[in-house]
Design a protein that fits this description.
single chain, 5-stranded mixed β-sheet, 12 strands, 16 helices, alpha+beta, 10% strand, Cytochrome p450
């Protein structure tokens, strides 16, 4: 691959459709520097998993990544070692798979039923804004301890924070959007955290302060607040956005009615949709030393984007990777789908996200088996760090 091609790639190119760029890189230059985002892209499944898992040659710690600039430090996605272990432990109490199994149905299904009922009299709906995203934000909001905050506010929060977390180009306008939302979150959340310091409950925010600590010795608010913002950003958008991609994939593959006929395949559809369009596209690393990878050398200190979304389209792992296929058996491929990441930074909320997506899709399939997408308004996808349909217009009946 000529350096001229990568030098010509823009952030808009990546946001509009990164997959052709990733495919060319996998063929011609699987590890290469991309100037528009000042980062080395790692594109193959083998190399992505290696760089994400190898903490001796790379680290999540940087101090100047867009997430850290936007949310502060220490952010759970931007630390390693004991600090990461402590922050991870503070989350795990509410998101271990067995714990999730105990509460997820009673949490998500009523929200999905209420959201679908509200669409009953509508001739056409935007499934993203009116169904998938509200379920996603309200579900996690209740678990976090933000259950009194409405869906529109929570959706505005993650959309605003997205602008900062993806601001590799250091655009002041994007940063201002994120900074304003983060200030609003601080104003609402910090007083709640101050009360929880002495009066803990069973919310995730309370666990972040107290889990694994001696009584009377909670973690400091400043220590956990950046990671709470990461949870709001990623956890609130990932399941809803993943659901939207699943539905688009099903219709593109002409497999919606196959799923209606066999709803037992919904969990498989969830995993395939997350592979096809990874809602969260990268794991960010920094090279500790000069790293030989993909036929080139990443210099010490260089920022590295391990592209989960590209790993999920690796032709050597997934046949016909650009196609959504309800019948793809991801258990039989030589590498796992990468949407939840690799190594110590594997998504702690993976069980919560999978179940939330499953339930939202089960309710949709059951209530609207004859759903049709609006052919005159095809779903526009946007983003490379976070990718999903921005709208999904459909006729329910």
């Amino acid at each position: 691959m000529t350096s001229d091609f990568l030098a010509s790639v823009t952030v808009d190119d990546l946001d509009n459709d990164p997959y052709p760029i990733y495919a060319r890189m996998r063929r011609e230059s699987p590890v290469a520097y991309v100037p528009c985002v000042d980062s080395w892209f790692v594109t193959t499944h083998a190399d992505v998993s290696k760089v994400a898992e190898d903490t001796t040659s790379s680290t999540a710690e940087n101090g100047t990544s867009p997430a850290e600039v936007s949310f502060g430090t220490p952010a759970i996605i931007a630390v390693d070692g004991p600090v990461h272990h402590d922050l991870r432990r503070s989350f795990d109490g509410k998101f271990r798979p067995r714990e999730v199994d105990g509460y997820i149905e009673n949490l998500v299904r009523p929200l999905a039923e209420a959201a679908i009922t509200a669409l009953r009299s509508r001739e056409e709906v935007d499934l993203m804004a009116e169904y998938f995203e509200p379920i996603s934000v309200l579900s996690l909001g209740q678990v976090l301890g933000l259950g009194d905050i409405d869906a529109d506010t929570l959706r505005r929060w993650f959309k605003g924070m997205n602008a900062g977390a993806t601001n590799f180009e250091r655009d002041p306008a994007k940063q201002a959007i994120s900074d304003e939302v983060c200030a609003e979150i601080d104003e609402i959340v910090i007083p709640r955290m101050e009360k929880l310091l002495s009066n803990p409950d069973n919310s995730t925010i309370s666990h972040m302060l107290h889990s694994g600590r001696e009584p009377g010795d909670p973690r400091e608010i400043e220590f956990v607040l950046p990671s709470l913002k990461v949870a709001i950003l990623g956890g609130m958008q990932e399941p809803g956005h993943g659901c939207g991609s699943v539905v688009v994939g099903l219709f593109q593959a002409d497999q919606w009615h196959a799923l209606v006929a066999d709803p037992g395949r919904i969990s498989r559809a969830v995993d395939e949709g997350m592979r096809w369009i990874a809602p969260i596209g990268t794991q960010f690393r920094v090279a500790r030393i000069d790293v030989g990878l993909g036929g080139t050398t990443i210099p010490a200190g260089a920022p590295v984007s391990a592209l989960l979304s590209s790993a999920n389209r690796d032709e050597t792992i997934f046949p016909n990777p650009d196609e959504f296929d309800l019948y793809r058996d991801l258990n039989r491929v030589r590498g796992s789908q990468a949407a939840f990441g690799f190594g110590k930074h594997f998504c702690s909320g993976h069980a919560f996200a999978r179940h939330q997506m499953r339930i939202a899709l089960e309710v949709l399939v059951d209530r609207y088996p004859n759903l049709r997408l609006d052919a005159d308004r095809p779903a526009p996808f946007k983003g490379w760090e976070f990718r999903a349909p921005t709208q999904l217009w459909a006729f329910p009946n």
